[in-house]
Amino acid sequence: MEKSLVSVLVLIVAVTHTLAKDTTTKDGKKDTNEATNTKIKLPQTLSRGWGDYLIWTQTYEEALHKAKTNNKPIMIIHHLEDCPHSHALKKVFSESKEIQKLAEKFVLLNLIYETTDKHLSPDGQYVPRILFVDPSLTVRADITGRYSNRLYAYEPTDIQLLYSNMQKALKLLKTEL
Q: For the purposes of burial, counting CB atoms within 10 Å of the CB of 106, is it exposed (0-12), middle (13-18) or buried (19 or more)?
């Protein structure tokens, strides 16, 4: 009987201590919202962090179908989850309001695996790599980045070039089709 009474008393003290825990913020105010004390992890979306408010397709085949039916170009981003270059580009891409706004005019697909379509790796398989495909399902090999050995590679400092290439893909859509 005495052991169970001590156990209950220890439990009450532990619960009381947890509930009475001081949760003051940096500015000295009490924080009563428990959600702000822990970082909320959102479920993984098709954006994979490249633009959570954009509409992304799940597969290359779905992107091709949407491009053809909606007469929009496709922007395909090849990247890897554990690649520091991909992470750096993703951060700049997702934080750029201009890129995010312009991206709404594309059928978007980001791939963390290589496709079997050889047209999507015209100069090799590397990441990050961004290619454009027009609604006639032609890979736009003429829209390239600034590197001669990796034509479709972009770095965070190339974000203005990427924006310009996105505009070019949209302009070609209007003039060629």
A: buried
